[in-house]
Fold this protein.
Amino acid sequence: MTPERGRAGQSRWLFPLSLVTAVALVVSWFPLGTLLHQRAALSQVRGQIAAVQSQEAALAQQQRAVSSSTAAILRARQQYQLVEPGQSLVQVLPGSAGAVTPGSGDPGNQPLVAPAVAGMLGSVEATPATPAHAPGFLSRLVRILEFWR
Protein backbone atom coordinates (compact mmCIF):
# COMPACT_ATOMS: atom_id res chain seq x y z
CA MET A 1 0.00 0.00 0.00
CA THR A 2 1.21 3.37 -0.91
CA PRO A 3 0.86 6.36 1.39
CA GLU A 4 -1.26 8.17 -1.18
CA ARG A 5 -3.79 5.37 -1.24
CA GLY A 6 -4.14 5.34 2.60
CA ARG A 7 -4.87 9.04 2.63
CA ALA A 8 -7.50 8.63 -0.09
CA GLY A 9 -9.22 5.90 1.96
CA GLN A 10 -9.24 8.18 5.00
CA SER A 11 -10.71 11.09 3.05
CA ARG A 12 -13.44 8.81 1.71
CA TRP A 13 -14.61 8.01 5.26
CA LEU A 14 -13.92 11.44 6.69
CA PHE A 15 -16.74 13.29 4.88
CA PRO A 16 -19.59 10.85 5.70
CA LEU A 17 -18.34 10.54 9.27
CA SER A 18 -18.25 14.31 9.73
CA LEU A 19 -21.71 14.58 8.14
CA VAL A 20 -23.15 11.99 10.54
CA THR A 21 -21.48 13.76 13.47
CA ALA A 22 -22.90 17.13 12.40
CA VAL A 23 -26.42 15.68 12.04
CA ALA A 24 -26.15 14.03 15.48
CA LEU A 25 -25.03 17.33 17.03
CA VAL A 26 -27.88 19.28 15.41
CA VAL A 27 -30.49 16.70 16.44
CA SER A 28 -29.22 16.58 20.03
CA TRP A 29 -29.04 20.40 20.23
CA PHE A 30 -32.41 21.00 18.56
CA PRO A 31 -35.15 21.07 21.23
CA LEU A 32 -37.65 18.74 19.59
CA GLY A 33 -39.50 18.06 22.85
CA THR A 34 -39.82 21.75 23.58
CA LEU A 35 -41.13 22.39 20.09
CA LEU A 36 -43.81 19.71 20.46
CA HIS A 37 -44.78 21.05 23.92
CA GLN A 38 -45.07 24.59 22.54
CA ARG A 39 -47.25 23.37 19.68
CA ALA A 40 -49.59 21.67 22.17
CA ALA A 41 -49.70 24.84 24.26
CA LEU A 42 -50.45 26.92 21.17
CA SER A 43 -53.33 24.66 20.17
CA GLN A 44 -54.73 24.89 23.71
CA VAL A 45 -54.50 28.69 23.63
CA ARG A 46 -56.21 28.72 20.22
CA GLY A 47 -59.07 26.74 21.73
CA GLN A 48 -59.33 29.21 24.62
CA ILE A 49 -59.32 32.12 22.18
CA ALA A 50 -62.11 30.50 20.18
CA ALA A 51 -64.16 30.02 23.37
CA VAL A 52 -63.65 33.65 24.38
CA GLN A 53 -64.62 34.81 20.91
CA SER A 54 -67.83 32.78 21.01
CA GLN A 55 -68.63 34.24 24.45
CA GLU A 56 -67.94 37.71 23.08
CA ALA A 57 -70.32 37.10 20.18
CA ALA A 58 -73.03 35.85 22.56
CA LEU A 59 -72.57 38.89 24.81
CA ALA A 60 -72.71 41.23 21.82
CA GLN A 61 -75.97 39.62 20.73
CA GLN A 62 -77.35 39.92 24.27
CA GLN A 63 -76.27 43.58 24.40
CA ARG A 64 -78.09 44.29 21.14
CA ALA A 65 -81.23 42.62 22.51
CA VAL A 66 -81.16 44.57 25.78
CA SER A 67 -80.19 47.95 24.35
CA SER A 68 -83.66 48.73 22.97
CA SER A 69 -85.96 51.03 24.94
CA THR A 70 -88.74 48.44 25.15
CA ALA A 71 -86.33 45.93 26.69
CA ALA A 72 -85.21 48.56 29.22
CA ILE A 73 -88.82 49.30 30.18
CA LEU A 74 -89.60 45.60 30.50
CA ARG A 75 -86.52 45.01 32.69
CA ALA A 76 -87.40 48.01 34.86
CA ARG A 77 -90.89 46.62 35.43
CA GLN A 78 -89.92 43.01 36.03
CA GLN A 79 -86.71 43.29 38.03
CA TYR A 80 -86.98 46.67 39.73
CA GLN A 81 -90.78 47.06 39.84
CA LEU A 82 -90.61 50.57 38.43
CA VAL A 83 -93.53 52.22 36.68
CA GLU A 84 -93.80 55.04 34.19
CA PRO A 85 -94.69 58.54 35.40
CA GLY A 86 -98.39 58.85 36.10
CA GLN A 87 -98.80 55.14 36.86
CA SER A 88 -99.01 53.62 40.32
CA LEU A 89 -97.72 50.28 41.54
CA VAL A 90 -100.09 48.08 43.53
CA GLN A 91 -98.69 45.04 45.29
CA VAL A 92 -100.98 42.35 46.58
CA LEU A 93 -99.51 40.28 49.39
CA PRO A 94 -100.22 36.55 49.59
CA GLY A 95 -103.43 35.64 51.43
CA SER A 96 -102.46 32.45 53.25
CA ALA A 97 -99.83 32.46 55.98
CA GLY A 98 -99.05 28.79 55.35
CA ALA A 99 -97.78 29.35 51.83
CA VAL A 100 -94.39 30.82 52.63
CA THR A 101 -92.03 31.04 49.71
CA PRO A 102 -88.39 32.16 49.79
CA GLY A 103 -88.26 35.92 49.90
CA SER A 104 -91.95 36.25 50.71
CA GLY A 105 -91.16 38.57 53.62
CA ASP A 106 -90.11 41.36 51.29
CA PRO A 107 -92.90 42.45 48.95
CA GLY A 108 -90.29 43.89 46.61
CA ASN A 109 -89.21 40.34 45.75
CA GLN A 110 -92.70 39.30 44.66
CA PRO A 111 -93.69 39.44 40.99
CA LEU A 112 -96.28 41.97 39.90
CA VAL A 113 -99.94 40.96 39.99
CA ALA A 114 -102.19 41.81 37.08
CA PRO A 115 -105.00 44.23 38.05
CA ALA A 116 -107.65 41.78 36.80
CA VAL A 117 -106.39 39.10 39.19
CA ALA A 118 -105.98 41.46 42.17
CA GLY A 119 -109.74 41.56 42.85
CA MET A 120 -109.94 37.77 43.06
CA LEU A 121 -107.41 37.47 45.87
CA GLY A 122 -108.72 37.36 49.43
CA SER A 123 -108.05 40.02 52.00
CA VAL A 124 -105.25 39.65 54.50
CA GLU A 125 -106.10 40.04 58.18
CA ALA A 126 -103.37 41.00 60.60
CA THR A 127 -103.16 39.06 63.85
CA PRO A 128 -101.10 40.59 66.63
CA ALA A 129 -98.38 38.39 68.03
CA THR A 130 -98.73 38.06 71.82
CA PRO A 131 -96.48 35.89 73.92
CA ALA A 132 -98.13 32.97 75.73
CA HIS A 133 -96.62 34.00 79.08
CA ALA A 134 -94.01 36.46 80.16
CA PRO A 135 -90.87 34.69 81.36
CA GLY A 136 -89.77 35.27 84.93
CA PHE A 137 -86.56 36.86 86.11
CA LEU A 138 -84.89 33.57 86.95
CA SER A 139 -85.61 31.97 83.55
CA ARG A 140 -84.30 35.07 81.74
CA LEU A 141 -81.14 35.04 83.86
CA VAL A 142 -80.53 31.33 83.13
CA ARG A 143 -81.06 31.95 79.41
CA ILE A 144 -78.58 34.84 79.44
CA LEU A 145 -75.95 32.82 81.29
CA GLU A 146 -76.27 29.71 79.11
CA PHE A 147 -72.89 30.33 77.55
CA TRP A 148 -71.25 29.03 80.75
CA ARG A 149 -72.32 25.45 79.93
Observations:
- The chain has a mean pLDDT of 77.
- DSSP finds five helices and no strands in the chain.
- The helical segments are 3-29, 32-66, 69-78, 115-118, 137-144.
- The CA atoms of residues 44 and 121 lie 59 Å apart.
